[in-house]
Amino acid sequence: MLVKVSSVSNSGLETIGVDVEVNVASRGLPVFEIVGLPSKAVDESKERVRTAIFNSEFEFPSRRVIVNLAPADVPKEGSCYDLPIAVGVLALTMNYQLPDESIFFGELSLDGRLRHTKGTLLVSLFAKEKRIKNVFVPKASANEAAIVKGVNVYAIESLNELLLYLSGEIKLEPVKYREIKYNQPVEKSEFDMAEILGQEQAKRAMEISASGGHNLFMVGAPGSGKTMLARALPGILPLLTEDESLEVTKIYSASGRIPPEGSLIRTRSFRSPHHTISQVGLIGGGTRPQPGEVSLAHRGVLFLDEFNEFTRGVIEVLRQPVEDGSVGISRSRGRVSYPSRFMLIASSNPCPCGYLYHPKKECTCTQREIEKYTQRISGPILDRIDIHIRMSIVDIKELSESEQVIKMQEPSSKIRERVIRARRLQEKRFSKDNIHTNAEMKNKHIKKYCYLSKEIRQVLIQAGISFQLSARSYFKIIKISRTIADLDGLSDITLSHIAEALQYRPKAQIERGL
Amino acid sequence: MKRIEINNPDYPQLLKQIPSAPKELYYKGSWDNSLFENCLAVVGARRITSYGRQITQRLVSEMASAGLTIVSGFMYGVDATAHKAALDAGGKTIAVMPCGIDMVHPAHQEKLYNEILENKGLIISEFEGSSPPALWTYPKRNKIVAGLSKAVMVMEAASKSGALITAKCAQEYGRGLFAAPGPITSSLSEGTLGLIKKGAIMVTIAKDILDYYGLASSLLTAGSKQFLDLSKLEEEIMAKLKQESISIDDLSRLLGIAVSETGTTLSLMQLKGRLFEEGGKYYVS
User: Fold this and answer.
1) pTM exceeds 0.90 for this model
2) Does B159 reach chain A within 8 Å, measured CB to CB?
3) In terms of Cα–Cα distance, which of A455, A481, A460, A480 is closest to A470?
4) Alpha-carbon gap: B85 to the closest alpha carbon of chain A (Å)
5) Residue A294: its pLDDT value, please?
6) Minimal Cα–Cα distance from A432 to chain B, Å?
7) ipTM confidence score
8) Residue B226: its pLDDT value, please?
9) Given CB atoms, is B224 within the 8 Å cutoff of chain A?
10) Which of A270, A350, A467, B225 has CA atoms 20 to 30 A from the CA of B112?
11) Closest approach of chain A CAs to the CA of B68, in angstroms?
12) Contacts of B211 (CB under 8 A, 6+ apart)
């Protein structure tokens, strides 16, 4: 007697259909075997399924039970096949019909209940794509799956409940998607911009960076407020758009980072790994390739504090994800690709002792030491960073007493309004170009959307000569001025936009390589 | 492909003056007499150094934006850099080919070739059809380059260089001859330094040449009106910075204006050469 149950296999962000074939033979010695390249977790499923069936007070057949996971040449991972296997076995022993066009997916607990299983969002996305009507998933993971419209998601609490439903004794309604509180827009970040005294230019740079999605590099003495400023950044970022939100939630779902009952992720993530992080930790990897920090920061912020302290190799592997917005990870078990379109915010001291250009303290570094320190960040990486700023120490006591400073402090909420407006203009502009922000513009987009008058071009030429700008820097200046113009709500870039953008050019002391 | 004959009133006057001027010219692009008003030939080595590229871009972009038409021979190296710099600056340029008008030589520069045509530039040749360049066509090409121009500027040239032939033509025709100095250790300076020794005018800034043409630089360089005039805000900033060097944050607080506006003004003042920045603070220069 043979029955086929549909399920899926998730690898990275890709999903393929898997047929779980269960056969209970009428002759042969009693065994329970799973074939079709099961991993350890899948193989252990045998014990969970058998025990769960017993504890649900059903009979487990003492016959030859063979389970095949087809296609048999694709490695199967995870605990999600517990449910389809148990459903298949019970369908044969209890003799009832399985519903058509249904996917079963979930991990069993020994008591017969279903546990939260990662990746249910991908399951219902797959169902929608393949026009499969019903999806049966654990109750704790159902909300995540219900994000996708047009698929009936059934939240199953236990094997018992499922069998009652399948035998027609009770009725179940497909669940409706609910937004969950914890994922609601976080209005406040750790710090509010208004709490940071002075540093007006750095704050302005953050605003531009947040508006256009530009990468930013700040250099400043210890205590100048670099970390605080970066941590205030989430407070001025807009919420994820619908598309972005789905992209991000997929990554988190696939790697099991959505908590039970979880819903769509609406806020931009802020990741700040420590500088001892390994290449795999940053980029992703492992035998079963998991997303790294760059992908977890997708559509959000990757903050690398003390940039020079990261090992050279770790800094260099950032190149591809920053450039392409995605990262491919190849391992012997296969290749997966995760998106990684994030804003890179990096900070560093100006020199090893930290006091170069300090107004009061003397820098004790030799020229050689400073050179060695700044050279740890290569030209190609700096080249991918649009905005460069320098921050100096402020006298907090003096500033906190100055009325002028207080008057000029702006709360994050106000800055955010401007950022949202600028982002909206960009969404509209790039609606047909498959990009979202000014920072993603390639040369063809610059040609199309950044008209420069003759006067402005001349100033740029002059700037190229006076500030010794490289060709790349030249384009970066244009991109930044596009964002500044968007903040002003203007469709044309003016001279003052270009002039302000020049403030954020890479400065010579730091950028020796170019 | 179009053709213009020597007795046509549109035929460039300067070129007509040279001995054995070509009887007819073939060209691509749209003929515009204003193109020939202020021509400057920029010539030099094929094997350009990074220094040569740097000075060519720097000088040519300023000259082209001031209104000079940059004439050159479309060879790779200095020629191509000069054409490209002129186009990037939104200026005019004429390429004189050593081969038949229907041929792109060198072929890998086809992109530049099209760019010249798209930006109202001209491609000129004395030869018709697609006759390939030969040893004897290059000197003839050089004659036209020199003949079209009021002056010739040599950027980088070894002691035996085609650019020196163009320079010699310029002298024969009584045109201005300029040369950019290079390091005395470089073999690609031998030609240019030799020219300077023999009386060519040394070029170090675009003004050297623009003065010869009686043109003013359109950039905010020292001496121009824009440079001398300061806005009220700029005057205020100058006054503050004369007392002490200040960071941009402090400055915008002192002036009570947004940091974005302060940044804009400071950038422009830096471009005018009035200020410089070091370690986050601004100084009067």
Assistant:
1) no
2) no
3) A460
4) 10
5) 95
6) 26
7) 0.81
8) 54
9) no
10) A467
11) 14
12) none
